């Protein structure tokens, strides 16, 4: 497969992830339906028709608009008109209508998805949007990724910027990521570097090797998914059909992997895959059914939650053996693996610790490629009531004996003293 | 009490008159005590005051709603998040149960009052009770006249008013009554030797233990007095009856109160009582043996008992010392230690020192809170020595110890006030006694009454014996030392009372003419008429000043509820109701389970008025938790955000007085936050916040100060109010005027900016890249990264 790229540099930083319950996708159907496609010119609609067709075949309603169209708007009357946005307009300097960087970011922060594509003529606007998403492009606007070893053999491309890459992220759920951290889905090979082919390379390239990301995806904290690609041509019909011959490699592929790669990754971006939901959090004392408003220390309790995975059409039970629940008060007092019955129900039971306070049942489930699950439910734990302590303690029998014998002795003494004269 | 066989005689009639008269005077004193405390309701409104009362109010509401068992077992998950607080086990339930009972009683009588109303008026009601208890106590010490004077003084002593105005629904409101009443019952038992009163005494002590931590004062003062009596050779079986049942029953009852529990036998505060308990038994044994042995045998026995007793005592003392020494604070709680060593708290426990009422009082506050009593107390002490009885020695001990304690902690002025009132009552009534007697002897037209006086004397003394029947009988029966009860001078006292009240000095001579009898057995001290008249006039003037001062203090100084503030300015009265505005905002605009962080002063109010979970509150039982909040307030924004976020805090509330000049705001309390935070988290250092040892917020302030969360939350957008950012409390322009908040957002600021509420921003949904956002022409800039690498370019 062969992909022509501009620079995509990963400079993501993982910041501590302390999300409170943010589960913006607990809708019945998390897959996006209405997609706004902004293009520089409508020719892209035909030159990239294979890609768009694959989306439409999967049921998406694509709404093509010119990026400069003054009538375009992402929301109206406080409602978003679209579920996802595809920006195939790398050279646009200013969007039409009410769209600007802040509007796009609000769109993402409201839990919607974004595909952003740049190319060698990417405008400051596009770069700014990418930066907001945690992806930096090489600051030299003319720079491209050049790889003199892993280039694809081509008749037109003299500067080896047509790259054959196969350094995918290893995730079965797709080329995806889970936290806010930006992940490189497709990294360049160690011999790639970023430079402007038209200028003489007097300095070493600032960015080189596998630090270069050709395609990046981001999953925001609210599970909004963003795909950022450095190349628009990668999506084109031409490259979809392109036969690849990697330089120095004897094998020649008739067809590049672009189509398969981009279809799969768009399934992920548009929440057709890798989307989890947790429902029916239940907890109760062992042997009871109703959920108490408060536990007592040393109670035995049962906790269960149902976790489902969206397959694109329906919710299937999610099966994993690494889902954990915490019984948490400033730090986890209990941390237990949940066992699943393969029908989506995860279940465990444990003893409430001998500490009172306001606890939380917490599930923090973050796995590569899946949307993050972050559930917490507050539950107070109280100490014993006055009548819940042991009534008679064996160890205290000497004291009981002492006090009763004292009483009896005092009574006898009084009788003796008063009437023995 | 009235003596039936002497009823036809004029003196018994006078006596009966006296009883009725003093009864009405007492009722009037009660009305006075109640009504002088209503200024706060009249001037403001019927609200709960200040901080702690809000908690008590909330607990009372819970009690009336859920009953006593749920109250006892109440685990409150809305304070001290996420630790929670076991309210039932950590609160003195006396006040709550009292008000709850009062409410229940009224409701069952079909008087539908709200819980709040009952709570507001609990303190005035109990101050009436307290003045009656003072009457009883002083009557036991120096007779009814002194009792009435003392009761009248206590009814309006400013120190007590400050803690018991309507709405000041705090433990002290009922505890002072319980304190005086316990003392009264102790003295009563001491005077009568009655086991009945001894049992009542234990019950009163139990009520005191239920009401206030100050009960340790009782359980240390009474043993001290017992010890004093023993040492001065005043041991009697009455003393034994007064003391031994109190220790046994009192300790058992005290241990029933959850908050005291085993502390009643395990902390050093109570050890004095046990030690004296042992001593009094040894002494009792000695007296018993002395009674049954011949003097010679007794000498031998003394040797034996002394040696054995000494050994036992030494062992017990050794065990006690070992026990006490094994605990780190030597078994004394921090508050008690700071009583004994006034510098203890400021040295080791900033959280105790930070409370203004735990500071030593200033001299003016004695004159403010006690006024003329401060001058009268010495005279009262002198009067108590003439003659010295068990009861008067107790009162002397009471005043001496409470003067010391009040010098340590301003809050304990409250304990001093009753003692000062009793002493002043004794002094005043003694003075009036002498002066009116002088008048009576020398005024014309009284000479013929002298004859009847001589007759009167006899009957009077009979009546006196009837009056003090119990005391005298018991005294006689035990063949005690002849320190008879001081003479009863009820009629003189009534007289003076009346004069104080109605200022009718004119008929003093005629009325008092029949009232000198009690003293005539001794050669009376007689002063010249002119001197007496002038002295009486001056004394009345003095008392009048006292009344004027008390009414002023009640009306102006101590009635502000502190939840609503007013200020008088040329253009009228300004009312600052910002606190309730903010709490109402919180309760209407935030989620029920949201957590609100603030400095602990506002914790009780937030839970009670806004019904939101707080992190720390005025019950300062967990120093670490408070230190965590203090650290957050003293940290820069990001660190503070992380601390608060780890505590699930949604909102942060700060109190800011800079706009209207409200001095007790968070910036003024901030150094305590730093100290308390730094006490647990050493990276917070007080010198970082001070410029050359000075606390300042202007441009000279340290960067740490200007960047800490408290500064930012207090002064955020402050410059927009007047363009300069002039802080009216600190009287200076603030140091950092224009800044943005990155991790917090302002959600609400009250009308006068006194309360500002901020919301924690949720964590960033996504992270930004490194490229500068403001870069307009990307081609013109080279990233710092590449320029850095250029320096060590191997290809050049």
Automatic annotation (TrEMBL), chain A:
Protein name in UniProt: Dolichyl-diphosphooligosaccharide--protein glycosyltransferase 48 kDa subunit
Keyword Ligase tagged: no
Gene: LOC113731322
Residue stretches making up the OST48 middle domain: 283-420
Metabolic or biological pathway: Protein modification; protein glycosylation
Membrane topology, from the record: Single-pass type I membrane protein
InterPro entries: DDOST_48_kDa_subunit (IPR005013), OST48_MD (IPR055459), OST48_N (IPR055457)
Record's subcellular location: Endoplasmic reticulum membrane; Membrane
Keyword terms of this UniProt record: Endoplasmic reticulum, Membrane, Transmembrane, Transmembrane helix
Short name of any one Pfam family annotated for the protein: OST48_MD
PANTHER family noted in UniProt: DOLICHYL-DIPHOSPHOOLIGOSACCHARIDE--PROTEIN GLYCOSYLTRANSFERASE 48 KDA SUBUNIT
Chain ranges of the OST48 N-terminal domain: 34-269
Subunit structure: Component of the oligosaccharyltransferase (OST) complex.
Family according to the record: Belongs to the DDOST 48 kDa subunit family.
Function field: Subunit of the oligosaccharyl transferase (OST) complex that catalyzes the initial transfer of a defined glycan (Glc(3)Man(9)GlcNAc(2) in eukaryotes) from the lipid carrier dolichol-pyrophosphate to an asparagine residue within an Asn-X-Ser/Thr consensus motif in nascent polypeptide chains, the first step in protein N-glycosylation. N-glycosylation occurs cotranslationally and the complex associates with the Sec61 complex at the channel-forming translocon complex that mediates protein translocation across the endoplasmic reticulum (ER).
Transmembrane helix among keywords: yes
From TrEMBL, chain B:
Residue span, Oligosaccharyl transferase STT3 N-terminal domain: 20-423
UniProt region (Disordered), positions on chain: 469-520, 766-796
Annotated catalysed reactions: a di-trans,poly-cis-dolichyl diphosphooligosaccharide + L-asparaginyl-[protein] = N(4)-(oligosaccharide-(1->4)-N-acetyl-beta-D-glucosaminyl-(1->4)-N-acetyl-beta-D-glucosaminyl)-L-asparaginyl-[protein] + a di-trans,poly-cis-dolichyl diphosphate + H(+)
One GO CC term, this protein: endoplasmic reticulum membrane
Residue ranges, compositional bias (Low complexity): 777-786
Biased composition (Polar residues): 509-520
Residues in STT3/PglB/AglB core domain copies: 593-652
Subunit structure: Component of the oligosaccharyltransferase (OST) complex.
Name recorded for this polypeptide: dolichyl-diphosphooligosaccharide--protein glycotransferase
Species assigned in the record: Coffea canephora (Robusta coffee)
């Amino acid at each position: 497969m062969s992909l022509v790229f501009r620079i995509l540099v990963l400079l993501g930083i993982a910041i501590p992830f302390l999300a409170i319950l943010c589960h913006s996708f607990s809708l019945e159907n998390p897959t996006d339906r209405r997609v706004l496609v902004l293009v520089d010119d409508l020719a892209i609609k035909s030159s990239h028709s294979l890609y768009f067709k694959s989306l439409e075949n999967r049921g998406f309603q694509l709404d093509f608009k010119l990026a400069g169209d003054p009538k375009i708007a992402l929301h109206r009357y406080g409602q978003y008109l679209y579920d996802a946005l595809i920006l195939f307009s790398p050279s646009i300097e200013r969007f039409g209508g009410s769209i600007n960087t802040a509007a796009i970011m609000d769109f993402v922060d409201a839990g919607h998805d974004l595909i952003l594509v740049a190319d060698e003529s990417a405008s400051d606007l596009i770069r700014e949007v990418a930066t907001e998403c945690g992806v930096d492009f090489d600051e030299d606007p003319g720079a491209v990724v050049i790889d003199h070893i892993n280039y694809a053999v081509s008749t037109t491309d003299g500067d080896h910027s047509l790259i054959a890459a196969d350094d995918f992220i290893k995730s079965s759920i797709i080329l995806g990521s889970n936290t806010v951290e930006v992940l490189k889905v497709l990294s360049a090979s160690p011999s790639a570097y970023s430079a402007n082919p038209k200028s003489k390379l007097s300095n070493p390239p600032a960015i080189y090797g596998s630090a270069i990301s050709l395609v990046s995806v981001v999953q925001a904290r609210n599970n909004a998914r963003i795909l950022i690609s450095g190349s628009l041509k990668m999506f084109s019909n031409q490259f979809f059909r392109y036969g690849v011959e990697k330089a120095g490699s004897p094998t020649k592929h008739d067809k590049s992997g672009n189509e398969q790669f981009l279809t799969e990754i768009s399934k992920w971006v548009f929440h057709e895959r890798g989307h989890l939901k947790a429902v029916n959090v239940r907890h109760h004392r062992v042997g009871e059914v109703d959920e108490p408003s408060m536990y007592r220390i040393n109670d035995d309790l049962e906790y269960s939650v149902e976790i489902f995975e969206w397959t694109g059409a329906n919710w299937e039970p999610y099966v994993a053996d690494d889902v954990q629940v915490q019984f948490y008060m400033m730090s986890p007092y209990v941390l237990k693996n949940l066992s699943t019955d393969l029908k989506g129900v995860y279940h465990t039971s444990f003893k409430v610790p001998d500490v009172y306070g306001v606890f939380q049942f917490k599930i923090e489930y973050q796995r590569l490629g899946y949307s993050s699950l972050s559930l917490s439910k507050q539950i107070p734990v109280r100490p014993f009531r006055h009548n819940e302590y042991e009534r008679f303690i064996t160890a205290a029998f000497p004291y009981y004996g002492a006090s009763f014998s004292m009483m009896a002795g005092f009574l006898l003494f009084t009788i003796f003293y008063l009437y023995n004269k | 009490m009235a003596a039936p066989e002497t009823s036809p005689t004029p003196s018994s009639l006078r006596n009966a008159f006296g009883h009725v008269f003093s009864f009405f005077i007492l009722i009037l004193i009660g009305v006075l005590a109640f009504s002088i405390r209503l200024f706060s309701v009249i001037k403001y409104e019927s609200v709960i005051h200040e901080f702690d009362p809000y908690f008590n109010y909330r607990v009372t509401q819970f009690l009336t709603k859920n009953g006593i068992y749920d109250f006892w077992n109440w685990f409150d998950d809305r304070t001290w998040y996420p630790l929670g607080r076991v309210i039932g086990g950590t609160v003195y339930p006396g006040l709550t149960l009292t008000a709850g009972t009062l409410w229940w009683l009224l409701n069952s009588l079909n008087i539908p009052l709200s819980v709040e109303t009952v709570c507001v008026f609990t303190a005035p009601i109990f101050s009436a009770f307290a003045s009656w208890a003072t009457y009883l106590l002083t009557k036991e010490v120096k007779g009814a006249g002194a009792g009435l004077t003392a009761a009248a003084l206590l009814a309006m002593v400013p120190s007590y008013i400050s803690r018991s105005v309507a709405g000041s629904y705090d433990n002290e409101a009922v505890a002072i009554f319980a304190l005086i009443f316990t003392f009264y019952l102790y003295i009563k038992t001491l005077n009568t030797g009655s086991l009945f009163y001894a049992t009542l005494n234990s019950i009163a002590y139990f009520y005191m233990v239920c009401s206030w931590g100050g009960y340790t004062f009782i359980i240390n003062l009474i043993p001290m007095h017992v010890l004093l009596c023993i040492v001065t050779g005043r041991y009697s079986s009455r003393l034994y009856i007064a003391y031994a049942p109190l220790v046994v029953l009192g300790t058992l009852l005290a241990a029933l109160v959850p908050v005291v529990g085993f502390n009643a036998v395990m902390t050093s505060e109570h050890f004095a009582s046990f030690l004296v308990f042992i001593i009094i038994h040894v002494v009792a044994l000695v007296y018993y043996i002395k009674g049954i042995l011949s003097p010679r045998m007794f000498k031998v026995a003394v040797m034996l008992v002394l040696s054995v007793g000494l050994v036992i005592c030494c062992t017990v003392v050794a065990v006690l010392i070992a026990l006490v020494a094994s605990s780190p604070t030597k078994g004394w709680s921090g508050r008690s230690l700071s009583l004994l060593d006034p510098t203890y708290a400021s040295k080791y426990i900033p959280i105790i020192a930070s409370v203004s009422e735990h500071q030593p009082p200033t001299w003016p506050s004695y004159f403010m809170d006690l006024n003329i009593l401060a001058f009268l107390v010495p005279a009262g002490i002198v009067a108590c020595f003439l003659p010295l009885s068990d009861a008067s020695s107790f009162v002397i001990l009471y005043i001496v110890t409470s003067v010391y304690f009040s010098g340590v902690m301003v809050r304990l002025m409250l304990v001093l006030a009753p003692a000062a009132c009793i002493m002043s009552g004794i002094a005043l009534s003694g003075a009036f006694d002498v002066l009116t007697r002088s008048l009576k002897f020398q005024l014309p037209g009284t000479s013929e009454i002298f004859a009847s006086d001589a007759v009167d004397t006899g009957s009077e003394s009979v009546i006196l014996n009837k009056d003090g029947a119990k005391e005298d009988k018991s005294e006689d029966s035990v063949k005690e030392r002849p320190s008879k009860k001081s003479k009863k001078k009820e009629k003189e006292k009534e007289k003076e009372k009346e004069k104080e009240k109605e200022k009718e000095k004119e008929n003093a001579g005629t009325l008092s003419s029949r009232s000198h009898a009690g003293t005539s057995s001794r050669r009376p001290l007689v002063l010249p008429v002119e001197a007496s008249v002038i002295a009486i006039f001056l004394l009345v003037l003095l008392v009048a000043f006292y009344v004027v001062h008390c009414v002023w203090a009640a009306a102006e100084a101590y009635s502000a509820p502190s939840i609503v503030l007013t200020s008088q300015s040329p253009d009228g009265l300004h009312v600052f109701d910002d606190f309730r505005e903010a709490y109402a905002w919180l309760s209407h605009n935030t989620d029920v389970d949201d957590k609100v962080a603030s400095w602990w002063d506002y914790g009780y109010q937030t839970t009670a008025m806004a019904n939101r979970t707080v992190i720390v509150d005025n019950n300062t039982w967990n120093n670490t938790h408070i230190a965590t909040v203090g650290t957050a307030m003293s940290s820069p924004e990001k660190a503070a955000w992380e601390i608060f976020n780890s505590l699930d805090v949604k909102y942060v509330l700060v109190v800011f007085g800079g706009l209207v000049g409200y001095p007790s705001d968070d910036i003024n309390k901030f150094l305590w936050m730093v100290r308390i935070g730094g006490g647990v988290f050493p990276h917070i250092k007080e010198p970082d916040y001070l410029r050359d040892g000075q606390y300042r917020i202007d441009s000279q302030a340290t960067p740490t100060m200007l960047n800490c969360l408290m500064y930012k939350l207090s002064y955020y957008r402050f410059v927009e109010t007047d363009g300069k950012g002039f802080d009216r409390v600190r009287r200076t322009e603030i140091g950092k005027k224009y800044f943005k908040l990155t991790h917090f957002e302002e959600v609400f600021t009250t009308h006068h900016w006194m309360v500002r509420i901020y919301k924690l921003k949720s964590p960033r949904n996504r992270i930004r890249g490194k490229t500068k956002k403001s870069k307009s022409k990307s081609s013109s800039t080279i990233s710092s990264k590449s320029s850095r690498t250029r320096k060590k370019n191997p290809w050049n």
